[in-house]
Amino acid sequence: MVGTVGNIERKEQEIIDEFSLFDDWMDKYEHIISLGKELPLIEEGLKTEDLLIKGCQSRVWLHAKLENGKVIFTADSDAIITKGIINLLISVLSNEEPDAIVNADLSFIDQIGLKEHLSPTRSNGLVSMVKQMKLYALAFKTQLNNPS
């Protein structure tokens, strides 16, 4: 388990290093927008009301599946900055074990200054995205610990 949590921390550090290359927030926003354009799209059939994240001003669909003991996330949004933000979260948390996701502190969000530079509604949306990803991971963790 420690190795897996370390993997998340390594990915977080890569993002911190990446964002340290930019001098101001306009450059960071442009980087987030480019990340949004790189987000692998969710299957159209998965853009359903039950996969919408509640608490986001933009429409954000998040799908999670368990594959070989690891959670695979895919997502889409109707707002390009939101797509970039969810892409950041997916790049850190996808393809990790449920327990590691549940226990991840995601300190990179504060370290790159993301929360403080987002509008209050986007910041609330970010919190909702993290919460939903951890809820999926918790559900998979419970499922793994209680096979039927």
Strand elements, count: 2
Helicity, in percent?
55-70%
* Shape summary: globular
Total count of helical runs of at least 4 residues: 7
Strand numbers in spatial order across the main sheet: 1-2
Low-confidence spans: 1-5
Order of helices and strands: HHEEHHHHH
Beta content:
5-15%
Alpha-carbon Rg, integer: 15 Å
On the 0 to 100 scale, the average pLDDT is 92
Description of the structure:
Helix content is 59%, strand content 11%. The chain is mainly alpha-helical and 148 residues long. The longest helix is centred in the C-terminal third of the chain and has 26 residues, at 120-145. The protein has helices at residues 2-20, 25-38, 80-93, 98-103, 108-111, 114-117, 120-145; strands at 60-67, 70-77. Mean pLDDT is 92; it is low at 1-5. A hairpin with a 2-residue loop joins strand 1 (60-67) and strand 2.
Short description:
The protein contains 7 helices and 2 strands. By secondary structure, the protein is mostly helical. The longest helix is centred in the last third of the chain and has 26 residues, at 120-145.
